[in-house]
Amino acid sequence: MTAAGGGAAELTFGPWRLGALLGLGGFSEVRRARGVEPPWAGAAQALALKRALPFLLPAAAGAFEAETAALSRVQSAHVPRLLAAGEVAGVPYVVLPEIDGASLRGLLTTGVLAPAEAATLVADLAGALASCHAAGVLHGDLAPGNVLVDTSGRAWLTDFGLATCPERPDRPARTGTPAFLDPAAAADLPRSAANDLQQLGLLWARTLTGRSPLGPGPDWHARAAAWALDASGVTAALTGAGPHGPWLQRCLAADPPAGLASSLAAAVGAARDGAGRAQLARRVAASPKTLPSALPSAAEDRGERVTDPSGETVTLSGDLHGLEPLEGSRR
Does CATH number 3.30.750.24 belong to domain 101-307? Predict the structure, then answer.
């Protein structure tokens, strides 16, 4: 999902009034929202409403069922809290706190992160994964477009549409962001917590080197299924990670050890000195405040797609600001 901002006339969507387009993903759009019925009428909290793109229904409905089930279980300082969920005229939605910041994918269009920035980001995401795994949730799609960084430099793990949990144990076949697939997702095998850590390792390497260790497309699925990582890319990432290189190496292993998310969050988090978070905050402050129309800089990111549950792909590019895919009455 791509974070953005900007003004927009309000739309009526059931008991909600929707404003600026904040983000757009493979299944959905996210808009600033306010409630007009209790308990949300007049609420001081800034809200974001995520709703399905209607031309992807009914396929996209499964992603909202998965997201609702997963977020109902997870409590973490780095995962948005589920505030409300429902349907309006057959269109599913969830309501979350609005996060004032930028997507990691957008931030990476300006270049790679410094090692301290990357370590801070990864420690936050590892903490989010530790909370997810403790709650019985596997995220399943750690990619730059599914991470937000707020104005304080804190990272948030978002987009649980491909998550699995006891209430929703299955995910659609051949889905995910191709340059960040793990072996189980690529081969349509049952996933484990270790697979989330492998995706985190790919993401970590991407922030440091500008490319995923799965290499250039279009053979991501085959390379991910065999876990055939580009050796030079892995070496560059391990070097770029500095003293945290051994932790990155554990993430990129064929079988990451149990409990790695918790130990990684504790070890890397304890080593940071605050400089990385301050650098991330400055990067967010300097980022564009409109939905970006430029494609990402890395070659494999230009091929990133989020596949919908039917197996089709949606490539998001061009100027999408102000898109109105759902009908509604303007106010």
Answer: no
Nearest by Cα to 234 from 256, 221, 250 = 250
Q: Is residue 273 annotated as part of the catalytic site, yes or no?
A: no
CATH top class, domain 2-99: alpha beta
For residue range 111-166, what is the model confidence (pLDDT) as tens digits? 999 999 999 999 999 999 999 999 999 999 999 999 999 999 999 999 999 999 99
**Considering only CA atoms, which of 285, 25, 57 is closest in space to residue 162?**
25
Delimit the CATH 1.10.510.10 region(s) of the chain. 101-307
Strands 155-157 and 306-307 come out as unpaired
Tens of pLDDT, residue by residue over 201-217, are 999 999 999 999 998 88
Structure tokens at 261: 């998310």
Q: Given 124, 141, 159, 182, which residue is catalytic?
A: 141
Phi, psi angles (nearest 5°) of residue 154: -85, 135
